[in-house]
Design goal:
- By secondary structure, this protein is of the alpha/beta class.
- It has two domains: 161 residues, D-Maltodextrin-Binding Protein, domain 2 (3-Layer(aba) Sandwich), CATH 3.40.190; 159 residues, Periplasmic binding protein-like II (D-Maltodextrin-Binding Protein, domain 2).
- Helix content is 40%, strand content 19%.
- The chain contains 15 helices and 14 strands.
- Strands 1, 2, 3, 4, 5, 6, 7, 8, 9, 10, 11, 12, 13 and 14 form a 14-stranded mixed beta sheet that branches.
- α11 crosses α12.
- The N and C termini lie close together (10 Å).
- The relative contact order is 0.18.
- This is Iron(III) transport system substrate-binding protein.
- Keywords: Signal.
Length: 362
């Protein structure tokens, strides 16, 4: 991908950031200096999840090492042999997590806390949902200049056409080739949206910018590098809009995709008991409440008492929620041929001078 990206800089699309170096932080009780009792790899930024991890470490008396990685890299780690994988994987790339379970890389876990989870929030006692993520559009209001804020994909397309050269190179999203969540949400659009073909063409013509994660896209909005962001995770975007009122988050009225962040314990985990303790805490009612309060993520348990539960989001939205469920249907998105076809369609629109892909690996 790095070689491909360097070639593309001379063409119509600007790829920003490329692969990111992993970021690691250790959380521990006061006056404790020891090797990690629990090793977690996840896609959530360290700064966002740090308060929750620190409170867990202090409460349980454990040393927790958390490494922030790209979604594709997190999935690869789970397939490593004994000693090479983390103890727990937290990811928003649902289809990659489900494939790891299906391929035998996760270990099952049952407890009183797990038994209380809704059936839709777990898969075969090996994959567990812990947060919702509505997928949103984000607009810098400076672009509007009196125009109406777009509330749907149709209206977004109308705005882009009306603004013409003003939005050339000013639309951003995560890179669907390197970011699991980006691929998952774009593939979902390809099946759900009647405007999908128009979006693909319009984004390509507008010299779409690509970023390695949702936070990077939001920072680009703040700096004025872009005016429009598409298919970002809602928890980050809502928080950003609260801090910067000229940046507005929209759950599209035609439909809003909703995915789930999930957790699994790799089969080769070195500290499986500590991972189980973490899961029980994360998925408990009190843990879900702390997750919402301390990280801004949206708990899957509405009784957790956070104003950012799915029920609250339903009240805010004027459109239709279309959840992405944990199901065998989701596994179809990991099919190599389907991925190749979707990426070739994508590349034909945004990389028009490139040859079709032959490498379908995530």
């Amino acid at each position: 991908m790095k070689a491909l990206t360097s070639l593309l800089l001379g063409f119509c699309l600007v790829a920003i950031g490329g692969a990111q170096a992993a970021t690691t932080e250790v959380f521990k009780p006061a006056n404790v200096d020891a090797s990690p009792d629990l090793v977690i790899s996840g896609v959530a930024p360290v700064a966002r999840i740090a308060p929750f991890l620190q409170s867990f470490a202090e409460r349980e008396g454990l040393v927790v090492r958390y490494t922030e990685r790209m979604t594709n890299e997190v999935s690869r780690l789970a397939t490593k042999e004994q000693g090479g994988s983390p103890d727990l994987i937290l990811s928003s790339a649902m289809e990659q997590q489900l494939k790891l379970v299906n391929d035998g890389y996760a270990q099952p876990y049952r407890s009183d806390v797990i038994r209380e989870l809704p059936e839709w929030a777990q898969w075969r006692d090996e994959l567990f949902a812990y947060a919702f993520e509505p997928i949103v559009m984000v607009i810098n209001r400076d672009l509007l200049a009196g125009a109406e804020l777009p509330q749907s994909r149709d209206q977004l397309l109308q705005l882009i056409r009306a603004k013409g050269p003003l939005v050339d190179g000013k639309i951003g999203m995560t890179d669907i080739e390197t970011v699991g969540l980006g691929y998952l949400t774009w593939a979902h659009d390809s099946r759900q949206s009647r405007t999908y073909g128009q979006l693909l063409e319009t984004f390509g013509n507008a010299h779409l910018r690509l970023y390695p994660d949702s936070e990077s896209v939001l920072q680009a909005l703040l700096k004025g590098e872009i005016f429009i962001a598409y298919n970002l995770v809602g928890s980050y975007a809502f928080d950003f809009s609260n801090r910067y009122p000229w940046i507005t988050t929209v759950m599209p009225a035609d439909y809003t995709s909703v995915l789930m962040r999930t957790a699994l314990i790799p089969k080769s985990a070195q500290h499986p008991e500590a991972a189980r303790r973490f899961l029980d805490d994360l998925l408990s009612t009190s843990g879900q409440a702390r997750l919402g309060e301390q990280t801004g993520l949206i708990p899957v348990i509405s009784e957790a008492g956070s104003s950012d539960t799915f029920a609250f989001l339903r009240e805010k939205s004027h459109g239709i929620f279309r959840p992405i469920p944990l199901s065998l249907q989701l596994l179809l998105q990991t099919d190599a041929e389907k991925r190749r076809l979707l990426l070739n369609e994508w590349r034909a629109a945004v990389y028009p001078q490139q040859k079709p892909a032959t490498d379908s690996a995530p």
